[in-house]
Amino acid sequence: MHITGGERIAISGPTGSGKTLLLRALALLDPVARGRILWHDTPVGGGRVPEFRSRVIYLHQQPTLVDERVEVLLRQPFAWKIHAGKQFSKDRLHDWLKHLGRPASFLEKQTADLSGGEKQIVTLLRAIQLDPQLLLLDEPTSALDSDSAAALETLVADWLGEAPRERATLWVCHNAPQAQRVADRLLFMHRGQLATDEARA
Amino acid sequence: MNYYPLSYIDLALTASLILINGAISIALRLNMGRTLLLASVRTICQLLLVGLILDWIFSVDRWYLVLAMLSIMTLIAAHTAAARNDRRFPGMWLNTIVSMWASSWLITAFALLVVLHGIGNWYQPQYAIPLMGMVLGNTLNGISVGLATLTGELSMRRENIEADLALGATRYEAALPMIRQSIRLGMMPIINSMMVVGLVSLPGMMTGQLLAGTPPVEAVKYQIMIMFLIASATALGTVAVVSLSFLRLFNRDHQFQFGLLTKKRP
Description:
The structure holds 2 protein chains of 2 kinds. By secondary structure, chain A is of the alpha/beta class.
């Protein structure tokens, strides 16, 4: 499997087929038993892992968030060494929130008061504000109503559109129509094996 | 000042006080009879045994015997600290032993070689053994609280940790809140007792010195020294066990090896 800038890929498959494991392995969150993960043709390990992960960001399916104000949580990554050169931008977040139909006061909320869908939104914002190259999205709309899910899909599309050659997404989708909307390339996973969907490719 | 040695009749007299506990157990049907008996027998036997061993070590007065005694005490303390934790991971025992050893020996060595350099032989058992005992007893608390807090927090907050790792945090950045919390809680008990020492209760060692006829201010001076020895050893031990455990549970590839953490079987 090979992913380059500008690609939009979707993976579907039955529950337990290993989609989440694949994404976690791609984000180097688990040791890989067999096979290798190459980034710009070289294996990544040790001290380069944080840099890799700042470019290839994995989003948990049903995020649990530390109890904090949303803004505090969004600011947090900028305190880490790997993001030291980046600037936290409230304006950008306000734009995105408007897009998702949420007021600017959303940033003032306590994460404990958020619904499952709102937590997914926080998680997505926390990731895209860091300008990664590849987003690994694990059913990012599973807890959102259809309107909010559609808004989130367009938000990700717009974000991709900001730098279409450099950015890519890999979605795990729970329904076929969404896979059609968010991807150009469809993959299917079954019992830990990946297969391409010939009809679409 | 005179010192009154206890006779075995005196001891039998006080041991009979356990009948009060026994009577309560029977009256309220607490079913604690056997436990009470066992606890009494253990108190008597363990202490007499230690007394005999110490008598022997004091009379032989050889450095290697003292070091052997201190080593055994250290291993027992490390074992107790690790056994209190209801979570396990490979390397936990070694981490605990290393932390216990390094912290308490360093601080006790400082006390014996620098502070008490006038006592003659550094290994004089009269000083070395009780000092080490008190340092170990308290470092044990710090290490066990630090270890339990770290493993508990890490297993509860896996998702938070991995979410941070996934955004490019280093393993240290991702685990820092839990590391801080563990060290803070590990050091808390000794700080608390430093706050109230002398006000709420007189520490055991000071009481012992007073009973033995030491003038109160002299006893207090020793107690002050002990408090600072304990505080520093606890801090070192807690930091050591938390850092070593962190390095076991997070690998060089900045992965949280959650699978290594297991619950102790009841």
